[in-house]
Amino acid sequence: MSQKTQRDSSGHRNLGSVSQFPTLQAICGAIFSKTMHFSLPSGQRLRTKLFKRSLFAVEHEGIRYVEQNTKTQSAYARRARDGARIVWAIRVARKVDNQWVACNDWLGRIEDGVVWMK
């Protein structure tokens, strides 16, 4: 008997615990601990940066991972103000013909250690 994939109200699929994705776990850990320089499990060094002057973010392989802005009025912001740890994954560049091309594609989020993606 196959188990149906769990989806949220936005249609994002529950991919399971962030611990199943060591690179993603390292990125989220750096964002929430406000660590400026950190290493991925592969040994690659990355750094967090401020996005919009107040949000911690990491860019890796064309994807920007950014913490939830608690100053908005969204349901996600309310949850973050109440203590939820939310990081958004947004594709900001795509490799086409061996060149990076800018784009803006919301891929999903990591919320309280659970990965939700399109």
Keywords:
alpha+beta; two-stranded antiparallel sheet; 9 strands
- State the major sheet: 7 strands, antiparallel
How many structural domains does the protein architecture include? Answer: 1
* Separation of the first and last Cα atoms: 24 Å
Number of helical runs?
2
The shape, in one word, is: globular
Task: Work out the strand percent.
Answer: 35-45%
Number of strands: 9
Report Rg.
15 Å
State the order of secondary-structure elements, H for helix, E for strand.
EHEEEEEHEEE
Tell me roughly what share of residues is in helical segments.
Answer: 10-25%
Strand order of the largest sheet: 1-9-8-7-6-5-4
Average residue-wise pLDDT: 92
Oligomer: single chain
- Uncertain residue segments: none
